[in-house]
Amino acid sequence: MFDKLHIFLGATVADAAARPLHWVYDEKKLKSYIKGKKDIAFFIQNRSPFYSIKTGEVSGYNDVGQVMFKTLTTTVNQKEVIKLFKKNIVKNFGPGSKYWKNLSLRKKYKKIKWKTAMKGPWIHQNILETIKNIKLKKTITGGTMVNESDGYCASLPFYFSHNSDQKTKKIIRTVANGKISEQFAMAKLKIIDLADKGDKDPVNAFLRNNIKSKYFKNVIENIKKVKKIKSKPHNFVVKKFGKACSYPGTFNGAIHAIITSKNFKTAVVKTIKAGGCNCSRANFVGAYFAAYKGLKGVPQDWIKKTNPAKSIMKLIA
C-alpha cells in the first residue's frame, strides 16, 4: 500500500527546504536575503514576512498532506478514510490547534500593514472553509473561494496508495471544492505517475495522452504556454504567470522548473529563488523528481533536515 511513499517524501522535503523563504514577494528583499549564501534551502533564519516556524517544519500546504498520511497509516477500514480525514483536519487545524491560535491575526492580514511575521503557522483559506463546512455537516466540505494547492497536497499520499481517480477527486474536493483546483491537482498526479512509471518525458507524455481531453483542456493550454517560453529565465517565467498561490500560475511555474531542471536539488533551489508562493510549487516539483529519480534522487542531507520526514522514512525503510 505504501510502496510509493518516496513520492510524498519528495514533496515534504521540497516544501521544508523552501519554507523559510515562503511568500517573499519583494524581489529586492529576496535577493538581499540570499546574496552570497551558498545554501538557500533550509534557510536558518525565517524570512517569510507573514509567519514564522522552525526551519525543518513544513508549510500549511504540505501539512494537509501530513494529515492525510497520518489518516492512512492509522485507519483500519479504508472506506472510512474521508470521514477520519475530516476529523483529523479539524483536530490539526481547528480550535485548540497552533493554526487556530493565530486565526485572529490572520483575519487582520488584509486590514493592516503587515510589519512582523507572526509566530506559528498560517492557516489557509481553503482549510478555514473546510473546517466551517465540516461543522455544518456539508456533503462536500472543500473551500470554494480560492483555487490553490491544498487539494493536491491532500490527495498526493492517497493517490499513490490507492490510484483511484474517482476516490482521489473526492479527497481533493474535501479541502478544495472547485473545478480548477480538481483539474490541476489531477494533472499534477498524472504527470508524477508518468514519471514514476519511467517515462523519459512525462510532461510531453501527459500532453500526448490528453490532447483531446475536455477535462484537461485548460491544463493543456497552460502547459503549451509554458513550453513556448521554456528558454526564458525561471524567475521571469514565474513572475509572468504569477508568483501567488493560485492556479494556473502556481502550476505553470512548477512545470517550468520541471522541464528546465535535471534533478531534485536544482529544481527546488530554482523554485525557491523565484519567490512568492514557492512552497505550493515545491510540493509538485519535489514529488515529481522523487518519482522520476526514485528515493535516491532526494538528497539525504535534506531528508535529515526535514522534521516530518522521520515518520515517512520509517515506513519506507
Descriptive overview:
This protein is mainly α and 317 residues long. It is 61% helix and 1% strand. The chain is built from 18 helices and 2 strands. It has helices at residues 5-18, 27-34, 60-74, 81-93, 98-101, 103-107, 125-135, 150-162, 165-175, 179-196, 202-210, 217-228, 234-241, 249-259, 264-273, 278-293, 300-305, 309-316; strands at residues 51-52, 118-119. A two-stranded parallel sheet has the order 1-2. Helix 10 packs across helix 11 and helix 12 (217-228) packs across helix 14. It is globular and about 50 Å long. It starts with a helix and ends with a helix. 48% of the residues are buried. The model has no long low-confidence stretch (mean pLDDT 95).
Task: Chart the SSEs and their pairings.
Elements: H1 5-18, H2 27-34, E1 51-52, H3 60-74, H4 81-93, H5 98-101, H6 103-107, E2 118-119, H7 125-135, H8 150-162, H9 165-175, H10 179-196, H11 202-210, H12 217-228, H13 234-241, H14 249-259, H15 264-273, H16 278-293, H17 300-305, H18 309-316
Parallel strand pairs: 1-2
